[in-house]
Amino acid sequence: MKKRVFRFYANYEKEEAWLNEMAASGWHCVDYLFGRYLFEKGEPGAYIYRIQLLEYYTNHAESVTYLEFLEDAGVEVIASHLRWVYLRKKTADGPFELFSDKESRIAHYKRIIYMLLPLALFNFLFGTGLLGRVRPINSLNLGAALLLAVPIISYFKRLQTLEKENQIRE
Amino acid sequence: MSAEDHGALTEAVFYILLALHEPRHGYAIMQGVQELTKERVVLGPGTLYGALSTLVEKGWIKALQDDKNSRRREYVATDQGKAVFQAELERLEELLTHARLILGREES
After folding, report:
1. Percentage of chain B surpassing pLDDT 90?
2. A74 at the B interface (CB within 8 A)?
């Protein structure tokens, strides 16, 4: 049995949590494209899902090597778009965490923030009319800026907590 | 080695450099470290790959094959990487010596 669900997530951690909730109830995501998730019915909790932003686009040699290495480690790439990859591993094969130390978690949050922040700023400047010819306030751009600001703030908070801990122990 | 290279290594980098005293590919590093530490240190794939590319950039390790697209790319520690590792061992030994010295004195 299959089902399609349309959803939009600005925060990848919430998206990841939702995929894992779905998996726990027996719906395993097998594909994703622009807000469209495809689920397959299966044994509840059979997979653990993770989402990652890669350093390079998925067809770059570095990313290809990484994705092949993931395969060796029993990780399946169910979908990718731009630099995002959707991964899953069988729960029976043990725990599945992409990052095992603070340094790499910090690096991942920073990578996402560096990607989102310029987008948010650009939309903010266009939305307020500070940039471009559109003088009246452009609510579409402002909305996009706001939508991006929410996860950025959440990532910043996590980053701060991690960096504070990092001063005490590895 | 620059002054920056004298800081403590992260546990991931320590074990990667140790494992790469012989050529190994990513998955073998992960498994080797897991076995050696009896599953105390389980390197996440994202952590391992991030560290590998940083270490290549620093020149502490190098990829063996010329074909960058090759599956199961092997890495090995460079002389510089081995020197950094040696310096770290000395630093760790110093820490232990100091701890034993102070604690030993307090106990007796």
Report:
1. 75
2. no
What residue in B sits closest to A97 (Cα-Cα)? B44
Separation between Cα atoms, residue A52 and residue A47, nearest integer Å:
16
- Nearest Cα neighbor of A48 from A16, A7, A80, A6 is A16
Domain B3-107 has CATH 3.40.1170.60: no
- What whole-number distance in Å separates Cα of residue A60 and Cα of residue B59? 21
Q: Where are the domains of chain B?
A: 3-107
Q: Does A95 touch chain B (CB under 8 A)?
A: yes
Predicted confidence (pLDDT) per residue in B21-68, tens digit: 999 999 899 999 999 999 999 999 999 999 999 999 999 999 987 555
What is this structure's pTM?
0.87
Supply φ then ψ for residue B75, to 5 degrees: -125, 155
Can you name the residues that pair with A80 across neighbouring β-strands?
A: A85
